What we know:
5-stranded antiparallel β-sheet; 6-stranded antiparallel β-sheet; Jelly Rolls; alpha+beta
Amino acid sequence: DIRWSDFGFPGRSGKDSTLWIGSEGANTPCHLDSYGCNLVLQVQGRKRWHLFPPGDTSFLYPTRIPYEESSVFSKVNVANPDLKHFPKFRNTTAHVVTLSPGQVLLVPRHWWHYVESIDPITVSINSWIELDADHEARVEEAITRMLVCAIKSAENPSDGDLWLNPTEVEATSHEINLQYLNKAVSAYFKCQKASVSKQAHPSSTGAEQRTSTSYKRKKREVGCEPEGYRLLTHEFGFSTFKAEKLQEIPFGPHLIQVLPQSQETSLWGVVAFERDGRDLLHENEEGHFGKLHCTRKQLVMSNDCEMPAHQMDSDSSPNVSQTALSTNDLLECLVNPHVISLVARLLLERTRV
């Protein structure tokens, strides 16, 4: 019954969406989505969203363990931050909004978000909107998957390291991951070529001819998404915007800007959440799953990552109990978003030559 066409996305409906059902205290650990932007409709109950701009990435201590395609997690429990181990979190700028039934939230590209249910039953529906930048992001995700699966699969499976999120049903083989990388690179150049061709031969009905499809979990289906997309503006008028123009949207009676809030009142003063809280999700009609995050994975991240291996004693000598580097320590360096971005650019340049 959802008509995302009301927001300027013709043909996009509930089939291109994910249904989320949660109980009070259910929460999604803080993370960013590698692909697209996000439209979220609250149907029942209320959810509180803690959002952080992309510029806060280094303050949120990003990690890819546990691994999930297109999700970069924060090692910080933003509801109860450990400032001793994560002191840079003080530099973040939190945007906190409570989403009520009937309201729709736009989550811009690469904005970090932590989501919690604050009513006994919450129901929401979202749809991920593809953007031009996703083509390079898919190359980066393919590189990340190849490295994580290759290195972690080589470890002893009996060590109990839950490095794969439940939404990732299995660690794919190196051969499959290599095929995935090649498809992502091919799609990147295909869309670059199409973009150049479109600029040379502009179409008067380009916006009407674009098709919007949900692709968040279509790991093996790499294609060419639309160049632009349309957003709801003042008095339900429609205009075409590029991703970088989002900040220029005029706010009116139907668009409410989410403003920064002080961390003391909006973030750190929030009550503690249930430890076993989780969000459930519904498989959509096309058979693609959305995310299922729960605090258990957050605890795994804390066990693996909160104590840096290079921690020193007061006499500035290495602490013997902390000098044993794990595979995860190495992976966190190898698949750091900044490193992966650089590797992807070098790889694309090599392929272009």
